[in-house]
Amino acid sequence: MFTVTKDIMLPCTTTGSFPRPRWFDVSMWGRPLDTCMMDVRFREKFQDALAVVVSDQERAGLDIITHGDFHCDEDFAGRSWHHYPLQRWKGLEGDYLQSEETRSPWLRYPPGTLLHEIYTGWRWPIVVDKVEHRPLDYPKIWRITQAKTRKPVRFGTCCSQVMSLFLDIHTDKYKDKRELIWDLAVAMNKELRALRDAGCKCIQVEEPCFHFMANSLGKDHPDVRFMLEAYNREVEGLDDVEIWIHTCWGNPNMQRVMEDTSYAASLEMYLYEAKGDVWTVEMKDRNFKDIELFGSLSKGLPKKIAVGVVSHRTLQADRPEEVAAEIRRALKYIPPEKLVITSDCGFGRQGCNREIAFYKAAAIAQGTNIVRRELGLPTTYVPAADPALQIDIVPKKSATTS
């Protein structure tokens, strides 16, 4: 159900995570949000940081706002994106290096590389009992954020399928990984339903990972088909919410974890079988590889496609006209009523700095407005581009100035 993009042509946003202000130097480290909020310093910094990330996105001119993933701890290479739910659900405990026997072949890199340091530096809980839901406080985080803006706030979360890649089972409650993945999906579904019940109308489920698996194993592999089933279980009963399915090719500390990337094997699964309304695809950093596939679909496009037009991996702040060129590139294959404009992935969690992220976001909005004008569509006000609102304005010469 298109609850937030229904009446917006070429809606623009970013994927989700945003760099923290330097003064936002507190984390939850596994504690419940309510416990953290009793600390007056945390309470003030957390609420103020959410106000700042909302303000930055509104000033950049984005149509749909995110909470910046500011509930995630400021830890090494963005581990908390996966770790936040795992720290809180029943049946998981401790922090351990994943065993070599269970580590995915995608996550093996030679010594002397950043990805090797990341995947041997990250520590994970082990599964010691049946995994069951405990509250993640997503409804409260959404309410705090939504209270600071009249624009819709999309709430994003790491999905259970990708979290399962890092878990070792140390209990006889599970005979195989599939049973664990299913319980993780059920647990996340409970949280997403609570988020919906709180009033959130747009939920982003991030990285179901069957595009990774289909690219390596083939679209008909039993493990790929099971991951699709588990994802659909995770979003079950959310038909009255606009569901975004975010996919990219890795983002620990801005790193791509796979070089041979293609959506070709997973295209039909995401479009026709995965429950949801918007599919986000990484394009800018991949030079728009696979974009032509969207123009050759005999069944048409049942979902909107959110195309990444700026990369989270580069430090160059894109110019609006460059973004407009990438949007035109996407429009060759995706009709405007089906196109959403976004970033390839998130900017935060030990990613690019706040100023660069802001101007990339502002370029998304300005570039979208360029194309909207060309198509005769309404534009969105971008305060960051308003000449009267610049920090430093060169005064005009008066008539009496010599």
Short descriptors:
10 strands, seven-stranded parallel beta sheet, 402 residues, TIM Barrel, alpha/beta
Task: Write up what this structure looks like.
The chain is α/β, with parallel strands linked by helices and 402 residues long. It has a single domain, classed as TIM Barrel. Helices cover 35% and strands 13% of the residues. It has a 7-stranded parallel beta sheet. A 3-stranded mixed beta sheet has the order 2-3-5. β9 (304-310), α11 and β10 form a beta-alpha-beta unit. α8 (210-217) packs antiparallel against α9 (222-234). The longest helix has 22 residues, at 354-375. It is globular and about 75 Å long. The protein starts with 32 loop residues before the first helix and ends in a 27-residue tail after the last helix. The model has no long low-confidence stretch (mean pLDDT 96). This is 5-methyltetrahydropteroyltriglutamate--homocysteine methyltransferase. Pfam families: Meth_synt_2. Its cofactor is Zn(2+). Residues 175-352 form the Cobalamin-independent methionine synthase MetE C-terminal/archaeal domain. InterPro entries: Met_Synth_C/arc, UROD/MetE-like_sf.
CATH architecture: Alpha-Beta Barrel
The CATH topology, please?
Answer: TIM Barrel
Residue stretches low in confidence (pLDDT < 50, at least 5 long) are none
Alpha plus pi helix count: 12
Describe the sheet with the most strands. Answer: 7 strands, parallel
Number of strands: 10
Percent of residues in beta strands?
5-15%
Write down the overall geometry: globular
